[in-house]
Design goal:
Catalyzes the reversible isomerization of glucose-6-phosphate to fructose-6-phosphate. By secondary structure, the protein is of the alpha/beta class. The protein contains 22 helices and 13 strands. It has helices at residues 3-17, 22-28, 32-35, 54-66, 69-77, 92-95, 111-130, 154-163, 180-187, 207-221, 240-243, 270-276, 278-297, 304-318, 336-348, 380-385, 407-422, 426-435, 440-446, 468-489, 500-515, 523-533; strands spanning 37-40, 43-46, 104-105, 108-109, 143-147, 171-175, 195-200, 233-237, 250-253, 323-329, 366-369, 392-399, 458-465. It is globular. The structure holds 6-O-phosphono-beta-D-fructofuranose.
C-alpha cells in the first residue's frame, strides 16, 4: 500500500474509532498490553494507554509502511542527503557508533574522523580534570562556562543536570541568553584563573553566542595575563575558520552533517565530558548506540521509535490533538521538556513537503512540560478537565542514584496516567458528594465540576535507573521518533529555516535602534521601537 492509500485507510479507521474508550480496549484485545509494551536499550515503553484500537494502531503503522520507513532509515544510516533542503547527510548516529563502524556522509568515510575527535575530546577532558591542562597562572580549572544557545546549549544542559555529581570536581555552568543577567549570574563567584570558557556554536555566527563569548573573553582578559589567556578559551564549531577570529586556544570541530539539536554527541558535549569525565560521557554514547541498533533492527511493530511516532500521528492526525505534554518524574530530568521542545518543534514544526507542496494536515504538536510532580500542581488541571485532550508522556525512574526506590514518584506518575484514562463519571462524583454528607441538591450542583471525562491517552517510559546509558537511549529514542514522523509527513526534519526571518529582522531593528534611524515598520512595531528607545 502506498502512502496515499495508507492515509486513506488511516483516516477511515480514525473516523470510525474516534469515540472508543481506551480502557475497553484491554478487554477487547487481550494481547494489547504485551503487544504495545516494548523493551529497548534499557527502557520499557508502554503504549497500551494510547487512544488506538488494534486496527487504529495497525493503520498508523500502515503509514510507516506506506512511507517506506525501512528504506528511509537505510538512507539515514547510509549517510544520504536526507536533509534534502540543505543537501546534507544526517549522521548523529555515527557520533556514538561502537568501534568498527564505517559511516559515510554522502559517500565520504567519516568514522575515522569521528574516532579521532572523540579521542581528542577525551584526552583534553582528562588533562583538564587532572590539572595537566591548567590556566594562565598555572591553577587547575574548577569551572567550565559553556556558552551556546539552542542545540548548542539544551542537550549539554540536560545531560549535565541529569548526570552531574552532587559535588563535582569541575562544575559546568551554562550561558545562552543574550540578556546580560544570565552571564552576570553565571560568572558571580567564579575566579577567572580557574575558569575555562567553552564557546559552542555550529555556525559561529549566532548573535547571542558571539555577544556572550565577547563578554566572557573580556571578563577573563581583565584578570589574566595576556600570555596564556587563550588556554581559558576553547571553541567548538563546524566553522573553525570563524572561531579563529576569537583566538580560541583550541578548537574542536564537527561537521555539517551534525544538526544543532542532534549535536550533543559531538564535541558539543565537551563541557559534559570534562565535568562528568570522558568515561561517563562515553557510556551515554553507548546507550544511544544501543537505541540506534534497536531502531535499525527491530521490526516496525516492535520498534519503539516507530510505535511512538505512530501514536503521535494517531493523536495529531487521527484525533486532532495539537499538543503533547512530557512529564519526567525525576528532578534530574527537569530539562527534558525544554530539550524536546527544540528537538521536536524545530525538527517537525513545518508544513511543506519534499515536493514543495503543503502538508495537507497538521504536523508537530506543541510540546511542553515540567517535571512531575511539579506539573501536577500547575497545568495538570487542564489535562484532566480542560475541553481539549492533551496526550502525555510519563517518564518514570524506578530508583534514584543512591539506589533508593522512589514509590511516591511512581505512585504519582501511575495515578496521573490512570486518572487521565479512567476519569470519573457524573454519577460517581455525585455518589461521592452524597457519601461526604452533601444534600442531594448540593451534590447535583457540584457533581459536574467534579467530573473527569477521562479517556485521555498517555505513554509510559520506564527505566530502572537514570544512568548515562539510559539517558543516551532516552534521547536517541525521541530523536528517531522525530525522524519517523518527518518521513511520514514528508517534511525535512533537519533544516530550520523558520528561525531565520526573525533573526534577520532583529538585526535590522537593532541597527535602527543603535543608529537612531528607524525605517518604516507596521504602526505597532514603530510605536514599540519608539517607546523602548525613549
Ligand atoms: O550552534 P549555532 O550555530 O550557534 O546555532 C544555535 C541554534 O540556533 C538555531 O540555528 C536556531 O536559531 C538552532 O538550530 C541551533 O541549534
Amino acid at each position: 500500500m502506498d502512502l496515499d492509500a495508507a492515509w486513506t485507510a488511516f483516516d477511515s479507521v480514525a473516523a470510525r474509532d474516534r469515540g472508543v474508550r481506551i480502557v475497553d480496549q484491554f478487554a477487547a484485545d487481550p494481547d494489547r498490553l504485551s503487544r504495545l509494551t516494548v523493551e529497548a536499550a534499557g527502557l520499557t515503553i508502554d503504549l497500551s494507554k494510547q487512544s488506538w484500537t488494534r486496527e487504529g494502531m495497525e493503520a498508523a503503522l500502515g503509514l510507516a509502511h506506506g512511507a517506506e520507513i525501512e528504506a528511509a532509515r537505510a538512507r539515514l544510516f547510509g549517510g544520504e542527503a536526507v536533509n534534502f533542503t540543505e543537501g546534507r547527510a544526517v549522521l548523529h548516529a555515527a557520533l556514538r557508533a561502537r568501534p568498527g563502524a564505517d559511516y559515510r556522509a554522502l559517500g565520504e568515510p567519516v568514522s575515522r574522523e569521528v574516532k579521532a575527535v572523540r579521542k581528542a575530546m577525551a584526552d583534553y577532558a582528562r588533562a583538564v580534570r587532572s590539572g595537566d591542562e591548567a590556566g594562565a597562572t598555572g591553577k587547575p580549572f574548577r569551572t567550565v562556562v559553556h556558552v551556546g544557545i539552542g542545540g548548542s546549549d539544551l542537550g549539554p544542559r540536560l545531560v549535565w543536570d541529569a548526570l552531574a555529581p552532587r559535588t563535582p570536581d569541575i562544575e559546568v555552568r551554562f550561558v545562552a541568553n543574550i540578556d546580560r543577567a544570565e552571564m552576570d549570574q553565571t560568572l558571580t563567584g567564579l575566579d577567572p584563573e580557574t575558569t575555562l570558557v567553552i564557546v559552542v556554536s555550529k555556525t559561529f555566527t549566532t548573535q547571542e553566542t558571539l555577544a556572550n563569548a565577547e563578554l566572557a573573553r573580556r571578563w577573563l582578559a581583565a584578570a589574566l595575563p595576556v600570555d596564556g589567556l587563550d588556554r581559558h578559551f576553547i571553541g567548538v564549531t563546524a566553522a573553525p575558520q570563524l572561531a579563529e577570529r576569537f583566538a580560541c586556544g583550541r578548537t574542536f570541530a564537527f561537521r555539517d552533517w551534525v544538526g544543532g539539536r542532534y549535536s550533543l554527541w559531538s564535541a558539543v558535549g565537551l563541557s559534559c565530558a570534562i565535568g562528568l569525565g570522558p568515561e561517563l560521557f562515553q557510556r551515554m554514547l553507548d546507550g544511544a548506540a544501543d537505541m540506534d541498533a534497536h531502531f535499525r533492527d527491530a521490526p516496525l511493530e516492535r520498534n519503539a521509535p516507530v510505535l511512538m511516532a505512530a501514536a503521535e500521528i494517531w493523536n495529531v492526525n487521527g484525533l486532532g490533538r495539537s499538543a503533547r505534554t512530557v512529564a519526567p518524574y525525576a528532578h534530574r530530568l527537569r530539562r527534558l521538556a525544554a530539550f524536546l521542545q527544540q528537538l521536536e518543534m524545530e525538527s517537525n514544526g513545518k508544513r511543506i513537503r519534499d515536493d514543495g507542496s503543503p502538508v495537507p494536515r497538521q504536523t508537530c504538536p506543541v510540546v511542553f512540560g515540567e517535571p512531575g510532580t511539579n506539573g501536577q500542581h500547575a497545568f495538570f488541571q487542564q489535562l484532566h478537565q480542560g475541553p481539549e485532550t492533551v496526550p502525555a508522556d510519563f517518564v518514570v525512574v524506578a530508583r534514584d542514584e543512591e539506589d533508593r526506590p522512589q514509590p511516591a514518584l511512581w505512585a504519582n506518575a501511575l495515578a496521573q496516567a490512570e486518572a487521565l484514562m479512567m476519569g470519573k463519571s457524573l454519577k460517581a462524583a455525585r455518589d461521592e458528594l452524597i457519601a461526604a454528607g452533601h444534600a442531594p441538591a448540593e451534590a447535583d450542583r457540584l457533581a459536574p465540576h467534579k467530573t473527569f471525562p477521562g479517556n485521555r491517552p498517555s505513554t509510559a517510559i520506564l527505566m530502572e535507573r537514570l544512568t548515562p546509558e539510559t539517558l543516551g537511549a532516552l534521547i536517541a529514542l525521541y530523536e528517531h521518533k522525530v525522524f519517523v514522523e518527518g518521513v511520514i509527513w514528508r517534511i525535512n526534519s533537519f533544516d530550520q529555516w523558520g528561525v531565520e526571518l526573525g533573526k534577520a529582522m532583529a538585526r535590522t531593528i537593532l541597527g535602527e535602534i543603535e543608529s537612531g534611524q528607524s525605517r518604516p515598520h507596521d504602526p505597532s512595531t514603530t510605536a514599540l521601537i519608539d517607546r523602548l528607545s525613549e
